Amino acid sequence: MKVSRLYLAFVFFVLYMPIFYLIYYSFNSGGTMHHFESFTLDWYKEVFADTRLLVIVLHTMIIALLSSSLATIIGVFGAIAIYYAKHRWKQTLLTLNNILIVSPDVIIGASFLILFTIAGIQLGFTSVLLSHIAFSIPIVVLMVLPKLQEMSPTLIDAARDLGANEWNVLTKVVLPYITPGIFAGFFMALTYSLDDFAVTFFVTGNGFSTLSVEIYSRARQGISLSVNALSTLLFLFTLFLVVVYYVMTQRTSVKGGQK
Amino acid sequence: MRRYAYAIPYWLWIGLFVIAPIILIVYYSFFDIEGHFSLVNYETFFTPVYLRMTFNSFWYAFLITAISLLIAYPTAYLLTKTKHKQLWLLLIILPTWVNLLLKAYAFLGLFGTYGAVNALFEALGIGTKQLLFTDFSFVFVSVYIFIPFMILPIFNALEKLNPSLIDAARDLGANEWTTFRRVIFPLTLDGVKAGCQAVFIPSLSLFMLTRLIAGNRVITLGTAVEQHFLVTQNWGMGATIAVFLMIAMASIMALTGNKKWGVRQ
């Protein structure tokens, strides 16, 4: 029992050590990640004074929110289409759907780069947005589809019998039932978009950058504690998102339980 | 057919972003750097340089997957025994929400010549070691990044395991190890497979880690694709490597064949 506790404690220690190491040194006036001189908030001031960085943060947010919303809409209808598809097509559609999930990022990035170049789409905001939508759609489908499958088909039959047309069945029966799945898909898409580096790195041009790409280019130049300050802020934002997500799923599951 | 109309954007997506890119990659792999149709890229791929790189990539991916599994299985097992297991599981998942590059950047500090790990080594009397820019640090950081993706499916598989089966094995006189080897492990094999898929395939394309942590000492296929597409602009060669990566990916999927794709969870 003792050994197992120690083992788990060690795993958690290693998992969180790098994150807290970053946060700890973001308050270091010394400018390095190994010798703590004295407490300072200068690096945070530097982050908030860096207009270029703030614009990049704004771009990252816009891309994440836009791409996950659009991917959710397309993905939900995709999942419904797969649900209604004839049995022998279902497996093919699912395989096609999952290709982008299992592909290594470099392949997605490289193939999208070729695609945008051929289509004559300039690399920048549009290409990054389109790629993020593209790799988020299958995740939304995978989150929504199980909800559709657990829905009893008699619900739809009952609605039809009561005179509902296609549109009514969709908006009054199907969509409300799969709402938890839609939210889960949206949040997954959001985190995938915020987290993505490799695909964005391929399809972003010179003028446009997201946070991941910016962190990469800064990290390649060596250690700068403003990156630490930025990571602390991002970690807090992540915690906030986790709390929001859990409150939301908790609420929907309570509602589901009352039915 | 009219009722499929709402899914038109989804069909477009499948056509434009799933099927077309695969065709384009294969098509580009037949063109040399001057844009002439040729098989020169495939000839280059079968030279010792690229074959060694392919072998190395798979070796590193294998190491990363195996080490992750060795650490993750006991962790997942012990997690199912804890009191507030959902909370602990959330704490395992939380670090995956921190940007991958920030975690890699943290190791630049931790593994640096004067970093915390070397300070610890000094205190223990081992002495300062060169940690950064070695293949050790590449494997370590990769395992660090992927381990939650290995723990999660194994944890889910263990949770689904019917505990009375373990009791039955015990009643029939099996000891701890036999119970694990003959009952628990075979029944959680799906989780292990899912975890291995989630680790092995992405670890073939970690070009940012090879650049940041391994200091170009480790060149994987992913690094080569990035190099050809974004640095040397030899798209044909990059596409050829990508074709082999796709073949590798497809065979791994077939090997760990999970027919229940998408129905999972």
Brief rundown of the structure:
The complex is a heterodimer of chains A (259) and B (265). With 259 residues, chain A is mostly helical.
Structural class determined from secondary elements of chain A: mainly alpha
The CATH topology of one domain in chain B is what?
MetI-like fold
Tell me the overall shape of chain B. Answer: globular
Please name the CATH architecture of one domain in chain B: Orthogonal Bundle
Beta content of chain A comes to under 5%
The major pleated sheet of chain B works out as:
none
Into which percent range does the helicity of residues of chain B fall?
over 70%
Instruction: Please state the overall shape of chain A, judged from the principal axes of the Cα atoms.
Output: globular
Weakly predicted, low-confidence segments of chain A: none
Uncertain runs of chain B: 259-265
Q: Looking at CATH, which topology of one domain in chain A would you report?
A: MetI-like fold
Instruction: Please state roughly what percent of the residues of chain B sit in beta strands, choosing from under 5%, 5-15%, 15-25%, 25-35%, 35-45% or over 45%.
Output: under 5%
What is the number of E strands of chain A? Answer: 0
Average of the residue pLDDT scores of chain A: 89
